[in-house]
Structure formats: C-alpha cells, structure tokens
C-alpha cells in the first residue's frame, strides 16, 4: 500500500485533472488524500469576490465555501479518498480584483506561498506520502502557481495537467511526461462521478453537466510531469 497525496489549489482541481488516476490508485489499495489549499471562508464577500459567487447563481447569503467543501467531501467519497481542507483564502480575497488579475502573476505583497509551504510541510510530516501530486499550472492561475511553488521541492512530486485549462491553452510541454495513465472505462466513470459532485462549478467551467460528460468521454489519458529543474 502506498500513500498518495494530491495537493489541489481549489476544491475541484484534483478531481478535474487527475481523478481517473486517483480512482485507479484507490482501487489498487493505495491510500489517497486530497489536500485542498484554498477553502477558507469570508463572512461577507464584497466586490469581485462576491461577483465570483453571484455569477455561479449563488446569492450573497450562501456560505459559498461551505457548499464547495461539501461538494469536495462527496467527490472524495466516490473513490474513498480522504479530504483535507486548508483554510487559505482564494485570490479574489487577497487583492486580485478582476478575472484578468487572476491570470497576470502574483502581487509583490502576497505572502501566500510561504504560508502554504509551512502548512503543506505539516501535512506531509503527518501523512508521510510516497507520492505527491500537484498542478503543472497550465492556464496560469495565480493560486495554482502559489501551490506549485509551495510544494514543488517536496520529494517524489509529479505535476498534473490542469483541466479544463488544458483544453483551451496553447500549452506544449518542454519535456515528455514522467508517466501517462491510460484511463480505463471504470477510471473515466469514477472521474466523471467525482467531477459531477462539484455542481456549483459545472455551468461556469463547462456549460453544464452534459458538456462535462461529453468532454470527459473524449479524454483517453492523464499525463504527469516531473518538475523542471
Ligand atoms: Zn483551480
């Protein structure tokens, strides 16, 4: 039995990007933990942060992160993975005040990487994983980059291709993947079942559940890369 630690920036990234592989490992008897970094609450979101909630059809009184943490718990339950939620705040709550700002590099006064590094190190100490997975950062989301920077020096790190960003980016890898996991039918079924749990995100990310299913059906493999030196 191996212990696999998937470090997910947001509540959905690990399932969207590596759900099939994680499902296969759990079925093979490994112990999978999905550690999600940005799951913290803000009592009364304002401005762009509030808009990010309203544009998902959720009113200002909905506890958006509580809802998303529950989605993640359901997704983890599909494969029997253990969810852990770190209470860091997503970029819209850290001064990134528009959609373009989320993809335009980190702010000089953003100290999130150091705080993430400490929190992730504590989890790694506790869990003693044999393999650590995280984001390659296709799409350049500032939160994905922060997580990658905070975890990339851990031993045994492999980076997944961030989906659905992968489908809309011009990304060409600089080196071949360290390994390719060919999805079995059952992997794909479990991956889709996990992704479906993130109901609040499906309209925004895919245009709905049917589109998610169609796009998942077209995926044949999940690719993982060693961090470049
Ligand atoms: Zn994300």
Task: Characterise the protein shown here.
This protein is an alpha/beta fold. The protein has one domain (about 5-225): LmbE-like (Rossmann fold, 3-Layer(aba) Sandwich), CATH 3.40.50. The protein is about 40% helix and about 15% strand. It has a 7-stranded mixed beta sheet, with helices on both faces. β4 (about 130-135), α5 (about 140-150) and β5 (about 155-160) form a beta-alpha-beta unit. The protein starts with a strand and ends with a strand. Bound molecules: zinc ion. Zinc ion binds near residues 9, 141 and 144.
Count the beta strands: 7
Largest sheet: number of strands, sense, barrel closure: 7 strands, mixed
Q: Quick one: CATH class?
A: Alpha Beta
Q: What is bound: which ligands?
A: zinc ion
* Helix segment tally: 8
The average pLDDT is 95
The helix/strand order is EHEHHEHEHEEHHHE
Which fold name fills CATH's third level, the topology? Rossmann fold
What gap, in angstroms, lies between the N and C termini?
A: 29 Å
Contiguous low-pLDDT stretches (5 residues minimum) are none
* Helix vs. strand class: alpha/beta
The whole-angstrom Rg is 17 Å
How many domains comprise the coordinates? 1
By CATH, the architecture is named: 3-Layer(aba) Sandwich
Labels describing this entry:
single chain, alpha/beta, Rossmann fold, 7-stranded mixed β-sheet, binds zinc ion
